[in-house]
Amino acid sequence: MLNAFNLSNVLLAELEVGKQFYWHLGNLELHGQVFLVSWFVIGLLVVASVLATRKIQMVPAGVQNLMEYALEFIRDLAKTQIGEKEYRPWVPFIGTLFLFIFVSNWSGALVPWKLIRLPEGELAAPTSDINTTIALALLTSLAYFYAGFSKKGLGYFGNYVQPVPFMLPFKIIEDFTKPLSLSFRLFGNILADELVVGVLVLLVPLFIPLPVMALGLFTSAIQALIFATLAASYIGEAMEDHHGEGHEEH
Hints:
Layout: H1 4-12, E1 22-25, E2 28-31, H2 32-54, H3 62-82, H4 91-110, H5 130-152, H6 168-203, H7 209-239
Helix pairs in contact: 2-3, 2-4, 3-4, 3-7, 4-7, 5-6, 5-7, 6-7
Subcellular location: Cell membrane; Cellular thylakoid membrane; Membrane
Protein name: ATP synthase subunit a
Membrane topology: Multi-pass membrane protein
């Protein structure tokens, strides 16, 4: 008869960590489960957008009301971090980042992906895969480089020697650490949350995991907000002048 320790080992063995479902495209190996859930998230966002804009009403209700609230929230976030004069072109990018990460995180907590069997690995939130979070962080890096060059041209390189020239190597290192910190923070928090909930569901499947799942939903929302806020902050920082007058107080 199995004792409690052996039973725990048997149950924990059912958790698959690090296994992937690969699609082979020539010599490339693609993480199939990441694409499947990412397409599901994108599909949800597209459907919500269509429903919200299909019959626009003067007094919003239902999905339209929800999407307008999300748009207003994202607009305020971008305005605060980037500045009132320059935030508008960046609302779609910041909004896409926030909504994709938010829905991805919540899909991992609310959708019973483990009921869908794959030949290998299992479905989970796209943001629990390091490849997804690194891709989002690299897009953010490209965005703030583009923002700086589009406003200052080659003068953008002047930021690297401000306030004194010996800051050059530190500024270059900072450009590498920004995307790394963004990607690892998001990946680590979402993966840890999914693992904790998965272990608790296996060991004590009734009631005990519910508070942890509720906390996970809150944490997932905060992680999406942090990522979008930092992305907007980096873009605003890239566009502000050397004397820090790019942001206006309002």
